[in-house]
Amino acid sequence: QVQLVESGGGWVQAGGSLRLSCVVPRAIFAYNATGWSRQGPGNKRELVAEFHDGRPNYADSVKDRFTISRDSAKNTIYLDMNNLEPEDTGIYFCHTREPRQYWGLGTQVAVSS
């Protein structure tokens, strides 16, 4: 069974920072469209950041605040989140989408004002 495992969520005040990590099974680490999505309270799941065709892409709402990176030796991807806002609150999911979709179970991020 393929399983992506997220960690690093938590509670932080607005303006603070968090780093999320996701261990991706080595067999699918090279899959395209690997990154992070989130689902806020009452909202649909939305793409936050991912590597696509080797380049990082970001949602407009997180540009200049979030950075996605990866460590091939550890088959891990990261999401560094700075200057967090209450609107960033939600469950953050690690995913890979091409050629097949796999998702982690998510890690909770809560940002208070």
Report on this structure.
- Strands 2, 4, 5, 6, 9, 10 and 11 form a 7-stranded mixed β-sheet that branches. A 4-stranded antiparallel β-sheet has the order 1-3-8-7, with no helix packed on it.
- The chain is mostly beta strands.
- The mean pLDDT is 96.
- It is 0% helix and 54% strand.
- The chain has strands at residues 5-7, 10-13, 18-23, 32-39, 46-52, 55-58, 66-71, 76-81, 90-98, 102-103, 107-112.
Which class of secondary structure composition applies to the elements?
mainly beta
| Residue-averaged pLDDT | 96
Q: List the total number of helices.
A: 0
Oligomer: single chain
For the termini, the CA-CA separation is: 39 Å
Task: Provide the gyration radius in Å.
Answer: 13 Å
Q: How do the SSEs run, as a string of H and E?
A: EEEEEEEEEEE
- Work out the strand percent: over 45%
Q: Which consecutive residue ranges, at least 5 long each, have pLDDT under 50?
A: none
Dominant shape: globular
Describe this protein with a few key phrases.
single chain; 113 residues; mainly beta; 7-stranded mixed beta sheet; 4-stranded antiparallel beta sheet; globular
Please render the helix and strand layout as text:
Layout: E1 5-7, E2 10-13, E3 18-23, E4 32-39, E5 46-52, E6 55-58, E7 66-71, E8 76-81, E9 90-98, E10 102-103, E11 107-112
Parallel strand pairs: 2-11
Antiparallel strand pairs: 1-3, 3-8, 4-5, 4-9, 5-6, 7-8, 9-10, 9-11
